Amino acid sequence: MALQIALAYYRAWTGKDLDAAIAYVADDIVCDAPAGRIEGVAAYRAFLEPFALSLISTELIAAYGDEQQALLMYDTASPLVASAPGAECVTVTGGRITYSRFLFDRLPFHLARAAA
């Protein structure tokens, strides 16, 4: 079940349908990301939306899961960075994502901004 929820969520945000993506996220979500902890669905959407809307393309590399957890690894391209691999390990409770451990390399973004 968690894998199906995570994949549906991924397809929604990578398709730039933030309303559909957020429908899979619990109101009290906790996300640990490279920049720190994000708590609550409003803060999570504010974190995700600018990046999701900037996407040029995405490629799902791998997806694994069981009833409670799922792990997705993907690569993204945006106007700022041509290749930005990332991974999310999510916990699903009651059909919604309650926790996300989100990992990505911040260095390519830093270098691109410094060069601009």
Automatic annotation (TrEMBL):
Protein name: SnoaL-like domain-containing protein
Domain SnoaL-like: 8-99
Transmembrane stretches, start-end: none
Any Pfam family hit: SnoaL_2
Organism superkingdom: Bacteria
